[in-house]
Design brief:
Strand content: 15-25%
CATH topology: Glutaconate Coenzyme A-transferase
Number of domains: 1
CATH class: Alpha Beta
Helix content: 25-40%
Strand order of the largest sheet: 4-3-7-12-13-14-15-16
Length: 259
């Protein structure tokens, strides 16, 4: 589904990846500041700044505060971030003063694996018997982002490879084993409030903190979402359908990617 082409907007056909990114950007409508991960989170955050939230302050782990890249950065060390930032601070200041003190509204993260409580693995995956674990990019600042931002958004493609019943490694804590775990662990922020995929949106149940399907993208069914999830996925009483991308959103995203 992630590379499929759909229609429904007024511009031209759009892909499920574009729909996922647009909906991830829309999730930043109320944010003032966002600690941005590279990849899909960066695309969504930069799209939000170009559309729904032009005053959004983008913050990157390398120390760039208020970055305004003209193109998607290749890494947190991309010079485009420092060149366009309002300020560049040291990494210790970034973590000690800005992040750990709770001064950032939203942390936007990607993942290799996510479980039913929105815990994240970006460290290693089990490749089966008699094979060494597959190494992933690692934690970086993600554990601190997940712990200390006011809230967390997660974006990744939806498959049983990514949405698993049990993580091979817990890199960043979402909601632990259920409601109350974050408080018990002394984590400052609310944790993940939404997981946006190329099939729809999941949010934690207020009582259990288990991810529940609340929204589907146009043309996607509940059965498709359940088949792509590695645990018995529960649904909200009413599953909404997300709005197709607008012309302005598609144009901004495509320009950003082409730059």
């Amino acid at each position: 589904m992630s590379d499929g082409t759909m229609s429904g907007g007024t511009m031209s056909d759009w892909t499920s990846d574009e729909l996922m990114t647009v909906n991830a950007a829309r999730a930043l409508a109320g944010a003032r500041s966002c600690f941005v991960g590279i990849g899909l989170p960066s695309a969504a955050a930069n799209l939000a700044r170009r559309t729904i939230r032009p005053d959004l302050v983008l913050i990157y782990e390398s120390g760039a505060v208020g970055a305004k890249p003209a193109r998607l950065p290749l890494s947190i060390g991309d010079g485009e971030l420092a060149d366009t930032a309002d300020a560049v601070v040291s990494v210790p200041e970034m973590f000690n003063y800005w992040l750990q003190a709770g001064r950032i509204d939203v942390g936007f993260l990607g993942a290799a694996q996510v479980d039913r409580f929105a815990n994240i693995n970006t460290t290693l995956v089990d490749r089966g018997q008699d094979r060494p674990p597959g190494r992933l990019p690692g934690a970086g600042g993600a554990p601190e982002i997940a712990a200390n931002c006011g809230e967390v958004l997660i974006v990744l493609r939806h498959s049983t490879r990514n949405f698993v019943d049990r993580l091979d490694f817990v890199t960043s804590v979402g909601h632990g084993t259920g409601r109350g775990d974050r408080e018990r662990l002394g984590l400052r922020g609310r944790g993940p409030v939404a997981v946006i995929t190329d099939l729809g949106v999941m949010r934690p149940d207020p009582q259990t903190a288990e991810l529940v399907l609340t929204d589907l993208h146009p043309g996607v069914t509940v059965d498709q979402a359940r088949a792509a999830t590695g645990w018995p996925l529960k649904t909200a009483d009413h599953v909404a359908v997300t709005a197709p991308p607008t012309d302005a959103e598609l144009a901004a995203l495509r320009t950003l990617k082409a730059a």
